Every structure is written in structure tokens, then in C-alpha cells.
Amino acid sequence: MQNIVIGTAGHVDHGKTALIRELTGIDTDRLKEEQERGITIELGFAYLSLPDGEKVGIVDVPGHEKFVKNMVAGAGGIDLVLMVIAADEGVMPQTREHMEICELLGISRGIVALTKCDLIDNDWRELVMDDIHEFMDGTFLADAPVIPISSITGEGIDNVRSTLVDIIGTVERRTDLGLFRLPIDRVFSMKGFGTVITGTLMSGTVSTGDTVEIMPRRRTAKVRGIEVHNESVTSAVQGQRTAVNLQGVEKSSLERGEVLCHPGFFEPSIRADVVFTYLESAKRKLKNRAIVRFHIQTAEVMARIVLFGRDTASPGERVYAQVLMDSPLALMAGDRFVIRSYSPVTTLGGGFVLDPLAVKHKQAELAANEAELATLETGTDDEKTGVILTRAGVTGIPAKRLSLRTGIPPKRQDTITEKTLSRKESHLVDKEERRLVSDAAYRAFQDRILDLLKQFHEKSPLMKGISREELKNTAGRYVDVKIFTKALQDLESSGSLTSAGNQIALPEHRVDLGEELSSVKDRLESILLTAGLKPPTVKELVDSHGIAEKELKNVLPLMVKEGIIQKITGDLYFHTTALEKLRDDYTAFLRKQKKASPADFKEMTGLTRKFIIPLMEHFDVVKLTIRVGDFRELRTKGDS
């Protein structure tokens, strides 16, 4: 039998907890305050034993308007609702609000228990039944059985139990997305065991010994033990009410709303694209960017709802929107949510997540974004995958996280992913991580690289090419180096660019100094080679040697790139031959003397402070030496 969870719903003091006690023998009001006040404040949990020996989890939710947020936290995992309406009061405000919440969360099956029938006569019972059927008309409970009961006399209790058993077998099984997720609805500690959390297992499987990640704060813990319906088990599966004993995390560091999952699959989200239905019962238009309470799974966070292309939403409208959360959450495409107003607190509407890791949308791209959202809502699995790959841009997305953003089960998603690769609709840019980039984004990035090379050659025609580092920073500082490297490799393989050492260039680029600049280059090399360790500054090259500043700007960087000279400071260039000889002499000196001061360097070279300090600092930078106080020492004994 599939694992399902029954949940209560209904107005405060209508007898939900008493009915659960009669059905199961379990009192779900565990708090002292609940027992003293006679109302449910927190979520309560029980289980119903079926004739075949199986057990079904039950979540008892509070009915008081002050505790609707707790009700929503419990209702997120419900498959079948037990709507409770007291015969002496009939349909009340929280009856209506709980019904709206159940519909927003996609609950589609249930029964109605007409409680406290011992307090009314038959005529009143018929009037209340008519009122209930009118209330249920047009809802998912329109055809649900209404069973009169009394927890005092026992009337109808067996009928409720047998009806639940019959309906349980017909409840449509939730799709198991395969990614383990267990939203926390309760945290406590047990003597001798430590930290325990409970929740309804949304998808996947968890076993003892597993390492789990607690999202969104990315802490890890180990599963020490698991209970389902108060029985120890080695693993729990989707749909089961589950208690998990965690090792490596304190009770005080956990809270309702966090999610247990397997490491590496989920990402914290602060923006989610959604489809939102504004309830017809709302009393006024909903303003764009309104502050709201966002309830999803067992979490509640403050958020803003950003409406797409409109200033308001009218009651009854269904619109695309983006939820901007004050605190991060671990979400997945397809997750259902409820939105309640900030103050006074009432239920406004709800819907489901289309993209849990959305980015801020630009006004100019509104039409394209709405088209993407329409595809994410109603498109084929292939089309949804294409949208998410496009949205991932040149950053790409690990294959294992595609399911998170498409809502497609991992095995099915893997098949679609392989198709995109075989059709060249995506590229595998990191085999280890299996990171994918859409073909459009990859081609656009390659085009940007080629465009930047063209610009570089136009600006610096005398340079053989641009360094990999400079090109990487210009093309996309935040683009992963593996994506950049693969893009270069593919462009080089296709003949679109060439590389020589660290230099990247277009294949058609040729350095042509011309007769005049070639002459300047030869003259500069002669001057700097002759000057040795006392080269003229750039200003002196202009003033004393008559070389034009514009010519120096063209030729000096080229000579540095070719390794003929080396730039030490902003206006000092040394011939490489002179520097290499000095390096050898300096190394030999330090091996013998162990250390050198500026005075030692002066005695060794005969240079003035104008050259001594820049040269000593240069050898620090190239990691030949290291400064220790006022002295330099060889960085390692093996340096030569």
C-alpha cells in the first residue's frame, strides 16, 4: 500500500483532536497549555491502524485563527483531509479558510465529519447538513461523504474509520521525485538519543547511517536512527510520517521550516518564479511588491510578491509573479505554497513554484520571461529543460540540479539531458561535475571571446596576442575557468583562434612593426643591453635619446611580451640578459652569505638606490628572495 498522510482541518473547538483520539487512541494535544486550554496550538501527530496491519499517519492541525500558520505547516504534507465541522455551530470562518488552504495546496480527496451530534436534534442536523453541502459545492469535497458523529456517544466513529480505509485505497499516489526531502515540522531532544526531528517525507528515501544536509544553512549531520509510527526502521520512504535521530547537530540550532536532504542537490533560494492564484474571497486588489507571509512546506518567511507586467491583481485572478524572500529556503519546482497578508493576517492565495532559483527579471525582457514561465507551467519535459538551460546562461548548471528547477524526476531528467547533449542543444563543460551549458549561451560566449580578440588586435596591433588571464577577466570574470578553457579549446580546434604559450590571437592576426618601428625596437634593445643594470627611464629615453613617447608605448610592451626586456617599475625596463646575469650573481652571493641588505646589494652591484630598491623588490616578487626584517634571504635552498 502507498504511504499517505491524513490531516484534519476545521474551526477551533469543533472536535478535531477528540475525533483523532477516538479513531486512534492517541491524544495529539501533548503541550500542557493545550491540555489546560482545551485547544490545539501546535501540530499533533498520530497514526491509524488499518485492518491489514498497515499504519497511516495523521496530522492534527490547530483550528484557531491565531495558529493558522501552524495549520499550513502541517497541511503541506497531507494527501487526504478530514474536514471537521461541529453540528452546533456549522460552517465557521476557519472552516472556510482551511478549505481554501487545502485547495491551494492541491489536496483533492477527503471526507467531512459532522461532530458533536449528541448536542443537537434531528431537525437541526438536517439544516446543518444542507448548509455543509452548500459550502462544499464547487470544492474538492463536493462529492465527499458527510458522516455525523459524536465523540461522547461513539456514534459514527466506526463509519469514519471504515470510510477512511475505503478512500485511502483510491488516493492518487504522489509522484516521487527521487530527491530526498524531509521538511522539519518539529524539533526536540530525547535523553540518551539527542536531537530528533519529525516531518512528512516528501520524496526519496533516507536510511540510518546516511549523511544529510540541513538546508538552507548547509549544516551536515548523520542519521543515527529512524522511526515511522513509533517503530524503529532502517529506512523511510516518501509519504511516511518520519522521526529522525540526528548525530552532530544540536536541537538549539534547528528549527521548523528547515529541510533535510542529501548533500549537494539543493541550493538556497531567495527568489522564486511562481504561478499565483488570488482568492476570490479577497476583499481588495493585491498591489505589486506587497509584503506578504510566504508559507511553503513547513516554513514561513516574510517576502514581497512581484507581479509580472501589472500594478495589481484582482480577486480571482491567476497571474505569474516572483516571490522575493527575506530569508533563503530550499525549494523545488512544483512545490505548492500559500500566501497570507502581513497585517491583518488573512489568507490571500497560493500556487506553485515554476523556478526555485530565479533571477531578477529586467522590464525589457518581460515578454520573453512570461513565455518561459508559460513553458515551465505547461510545456513538455524537453521544453522545460530547454528553458532552465537557457536561464542558467554561460554559468551552466550541474546535471544533478536540473530536477530541482524542472520538477522532473531524476531518472527521466537524465534521459532528457543525454538527448540535449546528443542533439548539440547543450555542452558538457565539466565532466567531473557534469555541468551543462546551453548551446546558445556557449556559442554567445565563444562569440564574445572572438569579438574581444578582434578589439584587442585593433587596439594593440603590435602585440602578438592577449594573455589567457587578461582575456578570461575581460570575457567573464565570474565564468568558471573550466568553461573558459573548454571554449578556447573548441575555438582553437575549429581554427577560430590560435594559442602560443600564454598568448591567444586570431589566426589572421600578424604583427607588422613597419620599417620605422622595427628600427626603434632594434635601437631600444641596443640601448638597454648596453646600459646593463643602469637603464634610462622612459622619460630619459624620450629626452636624452630622442625616441617619441608614442613609439615607446607601442614597442616597449611588445618587447616585454617577447621576453627581450622586463618591466621592473612603471618607468624602468631592464634587458633580460642583464637581469638573468644579476639573478645568477645574487643567488651565488646569498648562498654564500645567507642574507643581503641593501648595502650588500650596493657593494655587489655598484648601483645607486634608484636601482637597488626596485631590483631587490623585483626578486621578491619573482620569489627568488624573501624579506626578513631589513635583509633578504633565498626563498628556498634549492633556488638557482
Describe the structure.
This protein has 640 residues and is an alpha+beta fold. The chain has 19 helices and 34 strands. The protein has 5 domains: 164 residues, P-loop containing nucleotide triphosphate hydrolases (Rossmann fold, 3-Layer(aba) Sandwich); 81 residues, Elongation Factor Tu (Ef-tu), domain 3 (Beta Barrel), CATH 2.40.30; 98 residues, Elongation Factor Tu (Ef-tu), domain 3; 75 residues, Arc Repressor Mutant, subunit A (Orthogonal Bundle), CATH 1.10.10; 125 residues, Arc Repressor Mutant, subunit A (Orthogonal Bundle). The strands form 9 sheets. Strands 7, 8, 9, 11, 12, 13, 15 and 16 form an 8-stranded antiparallel beta sheet that branches. The protein has a 6-stranded mixed beta sheet with strand order 2-3-1-4-5-6, sandwiched between helices.
